[in-house]
Amino acid sequence: MNGVGGVNGHDGDDKPEANTQILQALEIIHNPRSPNEIRHSASRYLEEIRSDGEAPYHGFGLASAKEHPAIVRHYGLSLLEYAVRHKWSDYTSEQSRALRDWVVTLALNISSEDPPYITNKVTEIWVEIAKRCWGLEWMDMDELLVRLWDGPSAQRLLVLTILETLSEDIFGTDDSTAALRGNDLNRACVDIFTPADVLTDFFPSREITINTRYGSEGWLARMATLLEWCISDEKVSQDQQVSAVKALATFKSVITWVIPRALVTTHAVNRICACLAVSNMSIQLAAVDSLYALYNRSRFSEDDFKDLAGPMLKTDTINLLKQLCQWLIVDPSDIDEAKYLLLKKFSEMIFNIGRLLEARPSFAPEDSNLGAFFNLLMDIMKNPSLHVSIPALHLWVKLLNSNKIGDSPAVMDLASDLLETCSQRLIRFEALPEDSKNPSIMFLNEDVDTMPEKHAFLGNYARFCNQVVEAVVQKQPIDALYHILSQADQVLDHVYDGEPAFQASTYAKTSVPLLRIDAQFSVIEAALKGCLTWLTTAQKNNSTGHEHDVMFSNLRAWCDRLLGLTFEDPSIKQRVIQLAVGFAVGPLKREPRFALKMFDYILGTRCPEHPGCVAYTDAVRELQAFSLHQLQRLAMRFPNDFVIIFDEVQQKIELVSRTVALDEQTRARYSSILLIIMHRATSVDAQIRGARVEQFLQPLIDQWQNPALGHSLSSFQSFTNLLGLDGLQQYLSARAVQKIPDWSSHPLDDEGKDLQVRMEIALDALPIRATKTIMSVILERLEETSQPFEMACRIWRKKIPLILPNLLQFISQSQAFHNPSNWSGLPPEMQDIVSRILTDRFWQVGISHGTRDEFYAKVGETRTTLEGFASSVRAAVRAIRETGYRLLYYMSLLGEPFYSFPELPGPLSRALFADALSLSPHQMTILVDMMRPVIDNCPVQSRSHFLPSILTTLFEQVDRKASFEWERIEAKSRTATEDDDLTNEMKDESILRQLTMAAVNVVVGLLEPSKSSPPAAPEVPNDNVSSDTAGLITDTHRYFVLQTPEILKPVILFCTHALRMRDTRACSYIARVLRSIVPDFAGDSPVEADVREFISTEVLKACITSLHDPYFVELQKDFAMLIASIVISYTPYTQTPKQILLSLPGMPTEKVDRAIRHLFRAQSNSKQQRAIVLDLLEGFRGVAIHEQGKLPRPDRKKVRSEMQKQYMTADMQADVKKEQSPDLTGIAGMFG
Known about the structure:
By secondary structure, this protein is mainly α. Helix content is 67%, strand content 0%. Helix 30 packs antiparallel against helix 31. The protein is globular, with a radius of gyration of 36 Å. InterPro entries: ARM-like, ARM-type_fold, Exportin-5_C, XPO1/5. This is Exportin-5 C-terminal domain-containing protein. It holds the Pfam family Exportin-5. It comes from Lepraria finkii. Residues 337-1186 form the Exportin-5 C-terminal domain.
């Protein structure tokens, strides 16, 4: 680069044609009439000119010539920017000085006539230079900024933008360039913003070796003075508005890290608060943003709290805030977007003020008006917009749980208001129609774009409402419960007001009466939690007495009244049972007579049959299943009370079972209630109980030992006969079902209906589902040290060998059903229908069309069609497969009695994984999820025997399946067009993410350093373990896996492939886990060397490849940290990481060597390590889609705050616009 003597040192006469060619190329590109071939040639020329040594000079010439069009000047600035970003390290000090002087000159010439993108580009270049040399060779930057500040308003705005961007890059973001000089830039920023006297007070022993500041005032004071001028006039001018908004934006950036005392001495917060009173919404919004950032700081000293947060709690300020809040009322039918955005930000700001108060209530000044502040908070909470309301609601949860604030009179005065509002807001808003005129729904439609967001948000809102009710009842149990139960009586007495009487033909799960009762019962359930907490606390403090008696009497009387009411709606009956059982096992748990009454009530609950009403009939079935579960729940809680009248209970159970149980599975669930009572009734002699339990189990065990069952499970054909499907393949072939496009519209003939009935009867006769019911009630919710658990272990130790061989065959054959090669009765052209028949239909939030209820209604309508027949087949196979998985889980709860069988691992691996690749991704996800507890529950002494075969096969199969499915989706993505309906692809991708995440969760469970080992059975201490600490380390799954090469190989291979799977959440976890194990292989053993070479080669390559992929742009920091860990840990042992980096095209040796040296110096600073790697691989990093110009940046008004994101946590990946994968063919050749 010439012109090193300064800006004017280059006369530009040596290449006068260059500027002309650039101008011509730009003209060609922007001329719509230019032929494509010539336009592409001009684009290539402009790309190539950036690397030319004279490019910065040409760029300055183009940018500084005001006579050129703005687009030409912008291109000139882009040449300067490229030189700074990509070639700065190649320049001499004279060249970099010349480049810096050019940028300063451009800044000094900025005027109000320049378009914003010119000013912004000058700002970017200035900041990029500052990050590289400010405080080193550039010492007068602050003086230059002050000089610009004293110039025209356009230059003052430029200064503010520079200061804001500097602050963001140095403190607010993980900017890799700034991180390389982190401490120096941090210190320089603090210097120039803080008044000199505050610096002296705050750092009395500070040595000033390098002076980067100009003047004693500091930028905080200058900005505060500017802000005061901006709002000094009654009517704010355009210039004042723009300056104020920009100053407030800069305050927002610096206010998060600046010394709090500096904000006090410069009166900055007072100036910002004054902006709230200005009748200018842009200024008010910017002020609220700044105050939000200030009060979002985590810690203040007492003095800083009083000076910065204290004023917000004074009467005058609260009155101002209340006036602003009232002015911001928005009409839901005609939403003013600007006003609504300000209202939501205002609510979040108030939350932060309240959060600080809750954390340090003693810091509040004496003249604080907390009552007025809480009233303001109450007003915000009552706002019809749930998004405005939720920060205040969340804050109430915090305040009520605060020891010092929660019991204060100012809070307790609002208790009834809090209960009233929460009761109204606990209605299931998601069940209301989207076109509802309910204001909350209208606002919700504006704020939420997808169903996952809506469900997550409403779930959080309801949780906070419940917590508020719980806290209020805990503090005022008698009064609060009286208020809530009285409210419930009103609802129960008028539940059908304004609504038609119940009719089975018009039954709906979203009927208004049901929603009313559900909301009120939700309030009562939250109140019961608060009641139980109060009772526990009162008992600990020995303050039992009259209040307890009053409460028990009131609750019992109300429950008796509730059980005396009659409802025809099966869903309301279900809700009544749910609430009443909650009373029985909660505050009335010491009243066994009520539990017995509930038991009889549930047994006597019936609904009339209406076979023609499908939705009603389904609800009745759901009520029956739910009632059974509640009966089991009561039996588990009160076994010693029920066993006293066991014969009477048995007679009732058997009578009801004969009356309503239409299948063996339901009869088994009724019988399980008797088993629960006998098994858990510790008041009965253990031997007697054990004998009775054995008696219950024997008929089931006899079924498992039937030789006919073993024969039926010995082959695939006999297994299909066992399920009643021996004629299935012939039936499908005879009807050529592969030629029928829409099975749901094709009626099922009589032979198909006969097959359905035979299948249901055959499935009902199998012992597998009844065994699941029995094992669940025997093992669930038991302490491992309890007598019933010890009894279960003794009994099942003898029973498992009798069940396990046939159970493994059930699992194996049910998975073999998914392998088309086993369907030998179908001709080749019909093989594809196997997956069509066995692929599950299910509703996916945010992807499936319609609601969940609409989906199930549609499924119900297809029962008598060919699709309904296929659904019956898949349901039968799924029931066998997933029940088998569940039985394995229950057996794993027994510990050694299950894991110690010597021949178990091999047959179990074959049963689970021989045909696993034939399963769909959704079905394999269920398998992988089942394996997690089976792996976690393995006792330490059984790991070497059980885990190697299981884990090796698991990761080999899941790696093959996930890799194949991701490649398939990528291939589809590459051929997709804009006109394609991508709903199915989105479903497939969402399901595949679930599989990937399930496998990743297994990896995390095995290798996460913080993952604690599950409790193990006692064993003899190992003499080789010298300390307790060593024993804890060697007992972990992590230690076992890392010390077992047989397992480690497929695990690390899967992790390597997972780094390229397009699921950012899974990749992030894998990068973190790999980073944690990298140091474990920095040793001299052969195993360590082999693993180290694999990680140094394959894992490092995968990291660099993903780093290059724009899809993973948000994970570049994670990949960079993993790369840094590999280089730091392994470079002392091998040159492989260095060689891989050097194999990248155009990567100079000296650059790699310099990066490695810097990495070793920054071993204790992870942020700098990340920055060094990202700087080294700058030319190989992917660029975000919006930065490529493929998608526009999101609208600022639609960008959610961090708080809003917190309240709407959801996986948004499935909702992103489908993008084609980038062409990575060049990456394949990156590694030499």
